[in-house]
Amino acid sequence: MKRKGLLGVAGLFAAVLVVLWMTRPPGGDPVPVRELIAVVPLEAFHATVTTTVVSGDTLESVARRLAGKDWPRWRTALVEQIDPRSLLPGTLFSGRMSPSDHLESLVVKLDIRSEVHLEDQGATILAATIERPIHSEIVRFDGVIESSLFGAINSIGARPELAVRMADIFQWDIDFLRDIRKGDQFVALVEERSVDGEFFGYGTLYAARFTNAGKELNTFAYADTDGIVGYYDLEGAPVKKQFLRSPLKFSRITSRFSLNRFHPVHKKRMPHYGVDYGAPIGTPAHATATGTVTFVGRNGGAGNMVRLRHSNGYESNYLHLSRFAKGIRKGARVSQGQVVGYVGSTGWSTGPHLDYRVKKNGQWINPLLISSPPADPLPDDLLQRYLAHALALLEVIEGREPPSGARC
């Protein structure tokens, strides 16, 4: 905790005293204390204290640092205003101390937009949340891949968050580790938010185009009859499909599906019915399709493993996990993209990786060759309105119209 203010009062007093002494009439009386106090402003007797949240901090530990013996009152006031889960490392607390070392007020800067202001009124601590207005504008980004989507996004002045959002939207059609080629192109029409001129995040990604190895994919955001926003192509078909292309985001394939692979542990050729994704221990492994857990636990050479049953006769398996995700138990229902476990090196393994395997009607199949059916299309009563909406956004994507107030 940093404290400033009180230590400078003595120096300020001395400086003022010297000035008054030098300007007194010859033979005059010593400077009266009341004149000295009148010259030194009352604020000089207060100190500013600041502290920054570090890993392991709680609202109680912060209150103890700032408020001393009065910490219980301040902790109670803080808990009423701040969700403890939002107490992130780096959060700044700035307070004002009285000459008697009593915390009089406190400002908590949650992010560039939001602050919590608290003031001790004696009987109670008053609190208010201050939120600066958000400015939004629709921005069109376009770029060309040289080595990676992240690199291309960075080169055009956009934020990494946009790369993640695009990868999430196109993940059913493009594996952003295996399929990306130099020269691939993309366009994104996205809401960019700022506070007082400072970037605050992206809102809705209204439309996107990705051209991968010459194949052009277009997608547009649209709300269905329940108000749920999804992404659809130029014909109104959803881009979401039964299976994701990969259970890991931004990993690499280290071994492919094979009926005659040299096994690194057994030192002989034998079938390898999965695809190995190399990644650091602890990397989240995601369910590639919605389903039900039929097995979770230790399974011999597979190590820690999760098995899911899906519709249309499919089954997926996640091997060599270091641990299982919370809530993953036999009989549990999981959604597509939900974390089921974390990459490890348990069982017959020579290093951290995920062995991902899929069966169709009881037979092992190559996960990289799954032909996944799309989700349900838009109903007929929405389709015509959607197509008009998509064609209008297409004009912006292709640069024929400037971005404006796009809506889903």
Defining traits:
408 residues, alpha+beta, Nuclear Transport Factor 2, Chain: A, 10-stranded antiparallel beta sheet, 6-stranded antiparallel beta sheet
Give the SSE layout.
Elements: E1 2-4, H1 9-22, H2 33-39, E2 47-52, H3 59-67, H4 71-81, E3 92-97, E4 103-109, E5 114-120, E6 125-131, E7 135-144, H5 149-155, H6 160-170, E8 185-195, E9 198-212, E10 215-223, E11 229-232, E12 252-255, E13 258-262, E14 269-272, E15 274-278, E16 284-286, E17 291-298, E18 304-309, E19 314-324, E20 333-334, E21 339-343, E22 353-360, E23 363-365, H7 380-397
Antiparallel strand pairs: 1-2, 2-3, 3-4, 4-5, 5-6, 7-8, 8-9, 9-10, 10-11, 12-15, 13-14, 15-22, 16-21, 17-18, 17-20, 18-19, 19-21, 19-22, 22-23
Helix pairs in contact: 3-4, 5-6
Structural features, described:
The chain is α+β, with helices and mostly antiparallel strands and 408 residues long. The strands form 4 sheets. Strands 12, 15, 16, 17, 18, 19, 20, 21, 22 and 23 form a 10-stranded antiparallel sheet that branches. It has a 6-stranded antiparallel sheet with strand order 1-2-3-4-5-6, covered by helices on one side. A 5-stranded antiparallel sheet has the order 7-8-9-10-11, sandwiched between helices. The chain is 19% helix and 37% strand. It has 3 domains: 2-131, Nuclear Transport Factor 2, Chain: A, CATH 3.10.450.350; 133-241 and 375-408, Nuclear Transport Factor 2, Chain: A; 252-369, Distorted Sandwich (Glucose Permease (Domain IIA)), CATH 2.70.70.10. Helix 3 crosses helix 4 (71-81) and helix 5 packs across helix 6 (160-170). A hairpin with a 4-residue loop joins strand 18 and strand 19 (314-324). The radius of gyration is 31 Å and the shape is globular. The protein contains 7 helices and 23 strands. The two termini are 47 Å apart.
